[in-house]
């Protein structure tokens, strides 16, 4: 995952609370991470992160065979599936909180999946 830390934010005057209950200090920055992976078979898209503030997962489809679906699993490949059609998104935030592992899978072809994650430093 590509990681882009912002060590100090002058406009961050109040504490930020992560989905896992971690509290930032005044002015403490955030970490922005992103990755693109192939969902073929099954892969860990993001590890557990108690400092996660939000994440956005998008099915970027398969250029060679358009219209591919992916399945997102929160907490391992054996959990209840969340199906994303081509270019579909799943947003994790205060309204749909999750700090555990995020896995993705596809049973056919090679769709790509992108994740953007914001966390406390």
Nutshell version of this structure?
The chain is mostly beta strands and about 120 residues long. About 0% of the residues lie in helices and about 50% in strands.
Tell me what you see in this structure.
Helix content is 0%, strand content 48%. It is built from no helices and nine strands. The two termini are 15 Å apart. The mean pLDDT is 92.
Task: List its salient traits.
121 residues; mainly beta; five-stranded antiparallel β-sheet; four-stranded antiparallel β-sheet; 0% helix
What is the count of DSSP helices, taking H or I runs of 4+ residues? 0
> Which CATH class of the domain at 33-116 is shown?
Mainly Beta
Helix content: under 10%
Series of H and E elements: EEEEEEEEE
Strand content: over 45%
The biggest beta sheet reads: 5 strands, antiparallel
**Derived structural class:** mainly beta
Poorly predicted segments: none
Average pLDDT works out at 92
Strand order of the biggest β-sheet? 1-2-9-4-7
Compute the CA-based radius of gyration.
Answer: 15 Å
* Rough outline: elongated
Task: Describe the SSE topology.
Blueprint: E1 2-8, E2 28-38, E3 43-46, E4 52-61, E5 70-74, E6 81-84, E7 89-92, E8 102-105, E9 112-120
Antiparallel strand pairs: 1-2, 2-9, 3-8, 4-7, 4-9, 5-6, 5-8
């Amino acid at each position: 995952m590509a990681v882009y830390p912002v060590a100090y934010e002058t406009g961050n005057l109040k504490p930020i609370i992560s989905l896992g209950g971690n509290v930032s200090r005044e002015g403490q920055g955030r970490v922005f991470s992103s990755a693109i992976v192939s969902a073929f078979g099954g892969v860990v898209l993001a590890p557990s992160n108690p400092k996660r503030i939000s994440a956005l997962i998008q099915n970027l489809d398969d250029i060679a065979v358009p219209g591919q679906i992916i399945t997102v699993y929160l907490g391992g490949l054996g959990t209840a599936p969340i199906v994303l059609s081509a270019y579909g998104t799943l947003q994790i935030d205060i309204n749909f909180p999750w700090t555990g592992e995020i896995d993705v899978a596809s049973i056919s072809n090679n769709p790509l999946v992108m994740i953007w994650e914001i966390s406390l430093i």
